[in-house]
Amino acid sequence: MKNTTMKQLLAPMALVVVLVVAFMAPTAFSQDDMTVIPVDAFGKLERPQVAFEHDAHNEKAGLEDCVVCHHGKTDDGKQDLENSSEGETCESCHAVERTDGGTPLMRAYHKQCIDCHTKEAKGPVVCGECHAK
Which of 21, 44, 115, 131 is buried most deeply by CB count within 10 Å? Predict the structure, then answer.
């Protein structure tokens, strides 16, 4: 009797283990620190999304001050390099389409990265180097 009960319990337990492994395997093999530049605001993309390892990039570049990339905005709409916008999305200030003379979102991303890479003479500056297929 005990042998039959044990067999009846083992089958559902084995199923649970298989399901857990199946759902957890992709997470186990993913790169936890791998992120991408958020581009949801653009809708359909013409180029692949940019892979960007935030912490690894900043460590390699020697960046410690968040405001270097996450600049704020002054009352008159100019770039504020004293106050960080860390924690806010870029599109909260940079709309995809602009009619007010401000910097549109795509140009803000490109200008931020390419200008720094050019100034430092390090990092990718050509489309395909960031938007890798």
Answer: 131
User: First-to-last CA distance in the chain?
Assistant: 60
Amino acid at 7: K
pLDDT recorded at residue 103: 93
DSSP state letters, 95-121: -SS-SSSSPPHHHHHHHHHHHHHHHHT
Domain ranges, ordered by start, for the chain? 1-30, 40-130
Long-range contacts of 6-14 (CB under 8 A, 24+ apart): none
Strand partners, 79: 73
Q: What's the DSSP call for residue 85?
A: -
CATH 3.30.365.10 fits 40-130, yes or no: no
